[in-house]
Amino acid sequence: MEMLDIRPGEQVALLGGNASGKSRLAAGWAGLAGARYISFRDSYGAYGDRNFFMQQRWNLFTLEDDPPPVGELLRKEAAAVADPSAAAARLTELTALFGLGPVLDKPLVTLSSGEMRKYQLTRALLGGPSALVIDNPYIGLDPATRAALTRLLTALSASMTLVLVLSRAAEIPPFVTHVIPVQDGVAGEKVPREAFLETVLPPAVIRLRGVTIRFGERVILDRLDWTVRQGEHWALTGANGSGKSTLLSLITADNPQAYACDIELFGRQRGSGETIWDIKRHIGFVSPELHRAFQVDAPALDIVTSGLFDTEGLFRRPSGEQRSQALRWMEVFGIGELAAQPFLRLSSGQQRLCLLARAFVKDPALYILDEPFHGLDEVWRRRVKVLLDRYCAAPGKTLLMVTHCPEEYPACIDHTLVL
Fold it and tell me: Which residues touch 343 (CB under 8 Å, ≥6 apart)?
């Protein structure tokens, strides 16, 4: 059996196509290294006879014996390991980390795909393994659940080695440090994650290397490494004061500290001679701060048209085609009839829709939407989410979205950064 080159502290993706032999290599390494191995072969995992499992799932309420709840199953698992007291303490920690509390009283057969992932990870970790091999961790999961699982795995990677068996380079999460390609049952040379991705994924739109931002004694961003690639759709989350606004200001070229940092935007290093306007022309932007600062009492159509020039108001005469383009976007956002109305006399929600149309009017490569739904009622929130999904489905469109309400994220979100 070939021994994979995986060292303590490394987080590794074993990458190969169907029938490449990657699962066999991973399982063999797990056995030799004393790691726990989990295989997600379908939406519910690989426990027993799946036909029986599904029969129980759909006939749950006709069973003569009540199936045991998840909490009982996990407590039995903890009692069966070599050190039951340590396993019981670890179960308490994992329940909190994975947010399992709400499902402890549920029968196993009622769990969703995401909940089942958490259950299986908890079982595997009760014995305190030093390494964990996870085969097909993202199979069958929607984007939101994939993002949640990535957050959990990122937390685990701080204390143990993880080996993920994957079929697609796009699934390699940010915490992975190295990639081992597999073909015809043979493992290739181990490669640093970023070096490997540069050869197989779309170009980077945003790349931050070790970015630290301070205001006085206060550290806002601490050695942040982050890469956003063309066509990715990111959720940026974190508590108030965690640095989200500061990070956005570095990307939108509004923060002069960017020149002292290792930041690359749209393939060009900051400070290499580009102007602020060279950067802004690629970005469609809306935020609460922009909304508050937009005190321009001009017709709404002028406000939307100004997005073509990245100015707060019109300071040049647009062409007829440019005005028609702005009006089309107003109609897309359902506010075409407001074109002649003064911006400052519109409601807060109508103003926000104008600013969203302004962000989209130049069809940018990167949308940065910071709390885009402020001031919108539920009907308009749903409509704008549909619009975001529609336009982010276009090839090469990249989205970075901030909101404190996870239910506001559109379905297209496929990556998450937590500050």
Answer: 294, 296, 297, 298, 299, 300, 302, 303, 351, 354
